[in-house]
Amino acid sequence: MNAMFTRGPRAMQVTGAAIGLAMVVSGVVVSASPAAAASDPWESQSGIYHYFTVPKSSVPSNTCGNSTGAGAELEGNIGPSGTWAAVGLDASGENCVANIGPMKPGLYYYQYVATMPDRSKQVFRNPNSSVDVTSHPNWNTLFVPGPEVAWMDDVASGGGTVSELTYTSTVAGAERSAWVWTPPAYDPGRAKPYPVLYLLAGEGQSAREWQELGRARQILDNLAVSGDLASMVVVMADPGDTHYRAELLNNILPAVQHQYNVSTSGRERAIAGIGRGGYQALNLALTDPGAFGSIGSMSGYLPGDACITRSLAKAVNKGTDLIRFYVGNTLDPSYNSTWEAMQKLRSAGVDFEFDGVHPETGGVWDTWRENLRDFASRVFRPGAARHRGMSEGHRALTEPYRPPATGSITTPHIDANGMVTFETGTQWADAKDVVIWGDWAPNGQWFRIPMTKVGDRWRTTIGPIDGYYYWRYEVNGTPVHDPEDTNNTENVESQLFVPGGERTPLLADVPADEAGDITLLEYTSAYPGNPTMKFKVWTPPDYDPDRAEKYPVLYLYHGFAQNYATWTEVGRAKQILDNLYVRGEIAPMVVVMPGYPGLSDFWVDLTTKVMPLTASEFNISTEPSKMALAGLSWGARGTQGALVNHPGAFSYFGIFSPPFAAGSLDDISGPAAKKGTKLVSLFAGDVDAGAIGAINGMEANLAAYDIPTVKTIVPGPHGFDVWWQGLSDFLPRIFEHSSGVTIRPEAADFGTLPEGYHSPPAKKLTVINSRQTAIPPLSVTVSGPNADKFTLSTDTLAPIRAGKKAHFRVAPVTGLPAGVYEATVTVAGGSVRASVPVRVKVAKA
């Protein structure tokens, strides 16, 4: 039997002679490439951030974005793993502004959109910017360079040339264009014609998109310069849909062969495509075996009624040197279609290779660019040694993907590969739009990810992601708590922790038998009207209510419009405490998390209600040297107010992102604060201008009275991605405790190094066991926001006998940019813990 396929009514078999003579070439226009898109005048870069500044007058709704999702937003592939997401453009004078960063190196595409009062969307663009993407004229592109993407960056020299080939299409009855890349030193008179690779566009794409989003020119140039590409011609074309075979074989191939010095041998022709183009490439291998010697399917598929006979399979194997499949993760619409196509070929005995499932991205250009890099490097290189299996890090495709059935999941549903599916109930069946809002941005800013209507429910899948996020639904722009979340009950946000990664290790749950306890207490407050208030208390897993030495205590406050449960329901304070305690990085302590209503000063309530009640219920110290106070945002302002107005009441202060100062120390309060204060930790995110200004002023005021201060600024907004870092950094600094082990010297200060330094000498640290007994093996770790800026000679010390010593070394990493870097080196194991600070300043050369 012959193979049976679904064909267009005008599809035809074409002979070699017809291929060579069927078309008349109407012209060739040569250029370096499609013009590089002009930069978006509304976009700029400063440091690690990209800023977007849009005049409010250019926004169709004349309204900037805000927390309810109305007004102007920027949306693009800016979410986790390239998920399409939106960030609000907030009001700033006459402009609407946003920033994104630090952005992972790669290519981004985005557009501006205005949500109108009726929730309809209007896309708009800067009228002075050129069209970056032909098939999506409102999109802008942004390439972020970096060593990870050097393979798709512009080459300094030695690249090929891209030309526009105009030909007459008998299918369309009009002139059409393809784009042709010729290799460096291309010789149109060379005796041996060049092999040729045809790249087909997918549905909804254009021939230009291979360059505009696929960066085909840069990928091919880099492969050519590195010697990983056969000297060949590459044609980027869109043969259309129904009559693609006739367009390709009768029009495009003859035009290329007429204009360029390319081979007419099937063995020296390759073809690959995306989606629909992948289907076309595969189908041509079956309808015209031998017409193309190499076939690449990128998120492609075969028709469901394809019947591959034994004789056809033999013909395909005889006529092709390579058939290679590519597919993205389960977000790729062709995931199951690729599996089915491979099953058909395998069952029929057709030889093929599989690149493996791309684990990070789905059916998007981030996947297809890597596919092009792999496929182009393989074709026409018979002598090159290459593996025929999956690319590094890719996984097998052993079965089709079956997503959770609609209505069967309680959101969020996390699969084994870190893909997270969110699904609503039917209560929002009539909503105009539903999104999930969360700290999806690289630095913890809040992005909106749209959901899709499925029946009477809304649904979306993102990923792969790992670590901790907090999120909520927004229905027609209104924040809504996940009705299925019964764990977080006091805050609109819900928690999401995806295990298996290293993004936020301190926020993971520890084993139940190693976790501390949370106790909830209720009382009549001292606030106006004496409302009933609650607070939470964390105690360590080995808390002893009868311990002779009373526990030190930290009072930890939330911010404005938050509550007593925010630190645990959003801020993950329990997990941070549990993890640091298990690691031996913090002293045994009790942590109290009170609440306060409105903008009230919490001092009277803290000292007359919370502190006495806590002392009556827990074995805690009331000595100022064993007490600490910390807070975020408005709670940070209250903490700093306590330092200024009640000096000596606490020994340690943690001030995270204060909106402004509550006052300043003077010549009366300053000396009193110095006498009793062991440490003030100031912490803020780098895009939180108000908080940075506040802590800079506080730092100067504290320095005037020689009060020990640590100031840290990390990438991030006015949000919990900054505050949990602040808490994680603050906790190991307070309540120093002796465990019979000391480290000498007490600090490792590398002084000032010039920018561009290389391999500074490591400093030797000596661990001394002053106990009467041996101590067990000790872990050696570096903690703090700059932990990755220092290296250790070991991560484990062998047991140290009584009275003996052990040594290890610490050094800053090579080539740090200008700045000040501080961290904490800790040795810990069992009940043993000792820490020393490490510091280096790098000055501009």
Classification by helices and strands: alpha+beta
Radius of gyration, rounded? 32 Å
Please state roughly what percent of the residues sit in beta strands, choosing from under 5%, 5-15%, 15-25%, 25-35%, 35-45% or over 45%. 25-35%
How many individual helices?
Answer: 15
How many strands appear in the DSSP assignment?
Answer: 44
Q: How far is the N terminus from the C terminus?
A: 77 Å
Structural summary, described in words:
The protein is of the alpha+beta class and 845 residues long. Helix content is 19%, strand content 30%. The strands form 8 sheets. Strands 1-11-12-14-13-15-16-17-18 form a 9-stranded mixed sheet, with helices on both faces. It starts with 15 loop residues before the first helix and ends with a strand.
Key attributes of the depicted protein:
single chain, 845 residues, alpha+beta, nine-stranded mixed sheet, eight-stranded mixed sheet, 15 helices, 44 strands, 30% strand, disordered N terminus
In short:
By secondary structure, this protein is an alpha+beta fold. 19% of the residues lie in helices and 30% in strands.
Furnish the topology, listing elements before pairings.
Layout: H1 16-21, E1 25-30, E2 43-46, E3 49-55, E4 71-76, E5 85-88, E6 90-92, E7 95-100, E8 106-115, E9 121-124, E10 140-144, E11 161-169, E12 174-182, E13 196-200, H2 209-212, H3 216-226, E14 233-237, H4 244-259, E15 269-274, H5 276-287, E16 294-298, H6 310-319, E17 322-327, H7 335-348, E18 353-357, H8 365-378, E19 413-414, E20 420-423, E21 434-438, E22 447-450, E23 452-454, E24 457-462, E25 467-475, E26 478-480, E27 494-498, E28 517-524, E29 532-539, E30 553-557, H9 566-569, H10 573-582, E31 590-593, H11 603-617, E32 627-632, H12 634-645, E33 652-656, H13 669-676, E34 679-685, H14 689-703, E35 709-714, H15 720-730, E36 741-744, E37 748-754, E38 763-769, E39 778-783, E40 790-792, E41 796-797, E42 805-812, E43 819-829, E44 832-843
Parallel strand pairs: 13-14, 13-15, 15-16, 16-17, 17-18, 30-31, 30-32, 32-33, 33-34, 34-35, 37-44
Antiparallel strand pairs: 1-11, 2-3, 3-7, 4-5, 4-8, 6-7, 8-9, 8-10, 11-12, 12-14, 19-20, 20-24, 21-22, 21-25, 23-24, 25-26, 25-27, 28-29, 29-31, 36-38, 38-42, 39-41, 39-43, 40-42, 43-44
Helix pairs in contact: 3-8
